[in-house]
């Protein structure tokens, strides 16, 4: 963007909630016949987004939802993840993998890696912002917004951060 470091507002608080609501209804439609779905948030901001999706789904869906968290080392050249669940708990379940921004696809690829040894019923992905700069063959099933940005630009997602209103910025 500009050298001055100015930020351009892409989504405000209301628009973010509208995107989350729409994604929740898409998840409901895709999983209507399920008894329970697992929503796995990639920490930190994917975890916040996953919790918000769970809240909406708990209001609208007939199935149970369970929140899981995945913490990965995003700078590692191999999968190094901490999870707050037993992999066996995912057997024959629908899992929704959630992150805030899809940039290169590496984080989501690592998220997939966590579930490689689990016989899942299905695995779907959610991102709030898809930047269209994939280096890995990763596609999203549900995206709030797709942005074609230049590689030097950066997306800042602010969710549940003290003293700041929810927003998505391009800088």
UniProtKB/TrEMBL annotation:
Pfam families found in the cross-reference section: Pribosyltran
Keywords in alphabetical order: Glycosyltransferase, Transferase
Phosphoribosyltransferase domain span: 10-161
Signal peptide annotation: none
Keyword Transferase: yes
GO MF, one annotated term: glycosyltransferase activity
Stored InterPro entries: PRTase-like, PRTase_dom, PyrR_bifunctional
Protein name as annotated: Phosphoribosyltransferase family protein
């Amino acid at each position: 963007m500009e050298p001055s470091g100015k930020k351009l507002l892409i989504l405000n608080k209301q628009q973010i909630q509208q995107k989350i609501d729409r994604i929740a209804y898409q998840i409901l439609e895709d999983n209507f016949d399920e008894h329970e779905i697992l929503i796995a948030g990639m920490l930190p901001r994917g975890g916040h987004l996953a919790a918000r999706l769970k809240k909406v789904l708990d209001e609208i869906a007939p199935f149970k939802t369970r929140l899981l968290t995945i913490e990965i080392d995003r700078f590692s050249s191999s999968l190094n993840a901490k999870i707050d669940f037993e992999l066996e708990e995912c057997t024959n379940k629908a899992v929704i993998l959630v992150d805030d921004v899809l940039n290169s696809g590496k984080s989501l690829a690592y998220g997939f890696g966590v579930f490689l040894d689990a016989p899942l019923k299905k695995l779907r992905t959610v991102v709030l912002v898809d930047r269209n700069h994939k280096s890995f063959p990763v596609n999203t099933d549900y995206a709030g917004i797709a942005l074609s940005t230049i590689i030097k630009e950066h997306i800042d997602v602010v969710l549940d951060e003290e003293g700041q209103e929810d927003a998505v910025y391009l800088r």
